[in-house]
Write the structure tokens for this entry.
Amino acid sequence: MATPRTSPEISGMGHSMKRKEDPRFIRGRGNYVDDIQLPGMLHMDIVRSPFAHAKIKSIDTSKALKVPGVLAVIDGPTLAKYNLHWMPTLMSDTQMVLPTDRVMYQAQEVCAVIATDRYAAADGVEAVEVDYEPLEPVIDAHKALLPSAPVLRTDKKGKTDNRIFHWEVGDKSATDKAFKDADVVVAQDMYIPRIHVASIETCGCVADFDRVTGKLTVYMTTQAPHAIRTVFALVAGHVGLSEEKIRIVSPDIGGGFGGKVPVYPGYVIATAASVVIGKPIKWVEDRMENLQADSFARDYHIHAELAARKDGTMTALRIKTLADHGYADAAANPSKFPAGLFSICTGSYDVKHAFAEVDGVYTNKPPGGIAYRCSFRVTEAVHCIERITDVLASELKMDPAALRMKNFIQPDKFPYKSALGWEYDSGNYGAALRKAMDIIGYEDLRKEQAEKRARGELMGIGISSFTEIVGAGPSKHFDILGIKMFDSCEIRVHPTGKAIARFGTKSQGQGHETTYAQIVAEELGIPASQVQVEEGDTDTAPYGLGTYASRSTPTAGAAGAMAARKIREKAKKLAAHLLECSPDDLVWEPGKFSVKGAPDRFKTIQDCAFAAYTNHPQGMEAGLEAVSYYDPPNLTFPFGSYICVVDIDRGTGMVKIRRFVAVDDCGNIINPMIVDGQIHGGLTMGMAPALLEEIQYDESGNIQGGSFMDYLVPTAMETPAWEVDKTVTPSPHHPFGAKGVGESATVGAPPAIANAVVDALAHLGVKHVEIPITPEKVWRILREKGVAE
Amino acid sequence: MIPSQFDYHAPTTLAEAVALLSRFGEGAKVLSGGQSLLPLLKLRLGTAEHLVDIGRIPGLEYIKEEGGVLKIGGRTRESALEQSELVKAKAPILHDTARVIADPLVRNLATVGGNLAHGDPGNDHPATMLALDAQVVATGPSGERVIPIDQFFVGLFTTALRPGEILTEIRIPVPPPHSGGAYVKLERKVGDYATAAAAAQVALGPNGAFVKAGIALTNAGPTPVRCTKAQQFLVGKRPSDNSFAEAGRLAAEACSPSADRRGAVDYKREMARVLTGRALKAAVQRAEGR
Amino acid sequence: MATHRIELSVNGAKQSAEVPSRLLLVHLLRENLRLTGTHIGCDTTHCGACTVLLDGTPVKSCTVLAVQADGREVTTVEGLEKDGKLHPIQEGFWEKHGLQCGYCTPGMMLSGCALLARNKSPSEAEIREAISGNLCRCTGYVNIVKAIEYAAEKMRER
């Protein structure tokens, strides 16, 4: 790791500065949405559908309205009067706020009870009587496209099937030809199961409409407050909600991971209720609502094929995917990318030809397709390429590390144009893999494995050498509902040399209050402890697209550096004025300008700040502040190599992770302690769907495992002691060479684990195991192969 | 998640508690540790008009040895069992069991009496108590009665407790010398119910052969399952991988698990077999003082 | 339905309230007493975000009735800092980056405190076991373990 340029007092880049946000959290003084209590606040609770697909014959609220404390019940027809019963999704699809005639998935919102407290609201929910007529549901994504399947979105004029989109990328004919010419072709079906981010804080809001001023303030668990404000203005403009009268506040957020990007019906209902009733309304979903109704992630049915020469050189990749989006496409992808950035699926390898296609379908499940701590379908892509790479290694009887080394895009090839059109910024994949192999003792492990196999014991070693694609994104290609995916920072330096910096993103635990302050400290030499960072209030922060897809450092962080540089330029003029020299005669080191050749003649940034308000030169505006809206020239491509060692219990099929080494490269690092923390957490959220988590439905569309009883979020006992290390390959186009790191580990970990399990069973002829790899799945393989205890 | 309305009662004597339960009949539930009952009420999967909290009645939390019997108060917390040196010394199987119930925070409130009285075949104590040949003391309107554990579990969520009765004590005959027991549980993660679990309590004779074996299974049927054939098979046999395996096979035959998110029937039955073998092996190791 | 007059000690201060039978302890703390450091994360007694100490023992306050706390001592995260001085466990979480979003943190710290009260030098395995009733979605637990180890060391020094 490079030595930091700044002193510990300044704590710019590279310092493991203790987090500035922690003093409130360790005292229980965080301010999460459910902590907000406003005078006269009422509570909302939601009646939800027990059926996956049903006609609503009637809703009888009479008993509910008699429950003490219940004030109102809001249903679809109520909202329809204001044309607020439908809303757009971020993918320009539509979804119901409340139904007027039909429910489309189990746990869908049916109506909402408003009461004086949450106990009365819950009693009210139980007292609402809804008469349903069940309809045939479409649950299996494969059957959704059969001509016999009922068409679900009859609300869309002329819709005759359940296809949402067909998307393809790459040169099909060149790819097909490469497959024809290949020495070896391997193919594998794999399913990336439906999972849920399950942040420990669920979603909720407090909507507060002031009838006198006409101002709506919504405190909301959102990762993207500015975009939400605009969506609200677009959706409710016709009822008089104008954007300058809408204030969205993201308070402290108890984990987001992508699940707090969408607009959920509950937010809209609570807002409508506040407007109608004129009082603040709090809605906080419970865990089961969170798991059962909020947007899910993944649910990709993939068929992948990889072509290669006999020597292991990969020549072409072909992928066909079916994406189950539930009853509405409520992914939160950039608009032009219905399958997100799935086309990163050629991964870390120099594959000359590739073609990928994805079909999105409607089913009677909750709407979604959001990320689970990943940048728009990158996890799906990485699982696919890293798994099929191991399938190829097995087919060629090559060591999976050697096969990867052979096919890596070499360091001198960057910037590298991939077959599916991306320009990778920088990478040194071989170095990361070699480092991981050295740390874990790869060659010794292979010897141990051979000895154990001879004794009938099952151990496996799995590698994943992933490349991510994050930091969306360049305005040329990236927008959400037309809003370009820049991000922003506004810095004001006060007369005494302290600063406030506001950003368009929103931390949900990533530590922005610290790392953004460090960026400003690095650029201006103002101690990070004296830089106040604020985000999440649309009335004060500059417009930005929010925090998800590892975009904060690549976009808003970059904006922070650019705004700081503007300030530094002005400070330089101020310093020249104070030192009575030309700006060209000044040299900068963090915190001060000094005269070339006369280092004792200097002015600190604090001197400059004071002068900006007290002694600025004629012709210069007073003050020291700047705004930057940063439009990244390219995405960033963090990467890493992970190696996992597993032992398998032949009696129960239980997989135990013995060791897991993660070598990450996220470019230049702002705060090493925070980066390690992001990787630890990401690894755990990578392990979870690899071994534990899945949301399934029975054939009637009943959710299986819709509580923490069956949705298996790992505890400290299931989680191994992660071993992390780094290589540093800066991004050439980012202002300070950083790439983003929040999601790398979630993306990279699942195939390392799956590959380790398959490797443990490889001598039995096993080529693939679907995730989550439950003990029962493994045991079935062991029994079939005749090696179960 | 909010429970429906109920009335809460906090009697300070057993007699008062029994009287309240008798008065309210079916509408009343005993609140012991509350770690199963309160979630059920919050999910509104269960209802109660009256909760009779036995938490303020003195003298229901104890672990003691009297006349060759280990006596455990019905309201004894799982964490107390887990930390008890007496339990570790006299009935390590019980220590095994307590420490895999739910999670450590739940165990600070959950009680051994509640674990048994809930009648949930997924709970962990029932199998262990079967293996230990425990007795349950029920206190009701007509005083105390002692129920052999084999007669206690009547059906799914149903026990031999009568309306108005409270489970006040568990009595476990202190195992003789050269005894050992173990409880082995397969769970998907901490806090989960068992996919399958096996309790084995054995006594070895002077020649090293089994003189007694208690074997029972968790989550292997609508009630906890005692594996009589496996027990009978072992008596007189010497401990060996073969005898453990055969006992495991017989135990698996005795179970009738149902499929759920934890696994299909055949998997669970196989796990009953594997875990029984492992529990026996561990039990014998303890019996042999290894 | 009946209400009950209860008196309890919360973070050393006497509190009294008139509570309905069904009021959960977590709601008494959060809404009646406005001690919002105790959080709610699930409905099924799995996540431990609502962990408080009841007479010194960590319990999940979403699965305890407020009326059950009558006459007892409750410690919440707000009660850890004494006379303006952070508890070693708070120092440890800050020092070792044992938290990210902060939502599980109060519960984690209280479980850690209770462990250290009965075990001055816990092993990593013992720490992991002691916090296994508390879910964290952000940290991967590595730094939580380190934070508790840090606190143990600080407490041994005192």
About this structure: The mean pLDDT of chain B is 97.
